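Late entry, deoxyuridine-5'-triphosphate complex.
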Amino acid sequence: MPVKLSVKRLHADAVLPSLGHPESAGCDLYAAKDDFVAAHGKAVIPTGIAIELPAGTYGRVANRSSMSVRNHIQVAAGVIDPGYTGEIGVVLFNHSSKDYMIRKHDRVAQLILESFQTPTVVEVDELGPSARGDQGFGSTGS
Ligand SMILES: O=c1ccn([C@H]2C[C@H](O)[C@@H](COP(=O)(O)OP(=O)(O)OP(=O)(O)O)O2)c(=O)[nH]1
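Prediction complete; structure with ligand written out below:
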């Protein structure tokens, strides 16, 4: 049974999220207007859409690898809570020394639906045994 993502346009000409490729994990998100991310700066790019997520999922706004590799642009923040019905904003950091120009309807990120759990937090005195234990931060070698 295909999962349904309900999308509401907040601007008449907003572009709906779409799979760039049938085997993509995420739906591309589109800029609602011309915009830019200043060199070494950040911007919140409006998408002109709001969504209703399928039960048990949250939305993760993720990088388009092409923008990272070619232009040093990286998505930050990126958690769309279930129940959030406001406009989806894409937070972009520009790690380069050149302003990054965005044209209306450019693809600026992708939205991935992920399952999540809402645990009851329980304080304990000891954690269960594991092979790794407390070894982290490169402990398995370079
Ligand atoms: O990249 C993002 C991140 C967040 N949001 C929206 C949807 C999300 O549900 C809401 C709140 O985000 P988050 O929970 O990360 O923000 P917070 O800083 O913890 O603030 P809040 O007190 O609103 O939860 O903002 C976006 O549109 N784009």
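The mean pLDDT is 96. Will revisit in the morning.
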